[in-house]
From TrEMBL:
Extent of the signal sequence: none
InterPro entries tied to this protein: Beta-grasp_dom_sf, Mopterin_synth/thiamin_S_b, Sulfur_Carrier/Prot_Modifier, ThiS/MoaD-like
Official protein name in the record: Sulfur carrier protein CysO
Database matches in Gene3D superfamilies: 3.10.20.30
SUPFAM superfamilies tied to this protein: MoaD/ThiS
């Protein structure tokens, strides 16, 4: 079994258009490093300076990892990760 990572449309250029990919690791950081071995450039779009980018939201089984242990959040086989870019804007 592996960890499923759901990829937003804006990052699918790194996954050859795949909506979800699978990876392994015991923490979110390790998982992102594992994914980067097959989907080069994906990690740097999510991580900056060893921390999650400010405008990228990451959820572990529907829980925001910022309220867990951030990039050090433990993950396990069967977990589901969702990466969502923050959306801003609106009418002035």
């Amino acid at each position: 079994m592996a960890i499923e990572v759901r990829i937003p449309t804006i990052l699918r250029t790194y996954t050859d258009g795949e909506k979800s990919v699978h990876g392994a690791g015991s923490t979110l950081d390790e998982l992102l490093a594992d994914l980067d071995t097959r989907h080069t450039g994906l990690r740097e779009r999510v991580v900056d300076g060893g921390e999650l980018r400010r405008f990228v939201n990451v959820y572990l089984n529907d829980e925001d990892v910022r309220f867990l242990d951030g990039i050090s959040t433990k993950v396990a086989d069967g977990d589901s990760i969702t990466i969502l870019p923050a959306v801003a804007g609106g009418m002035a």
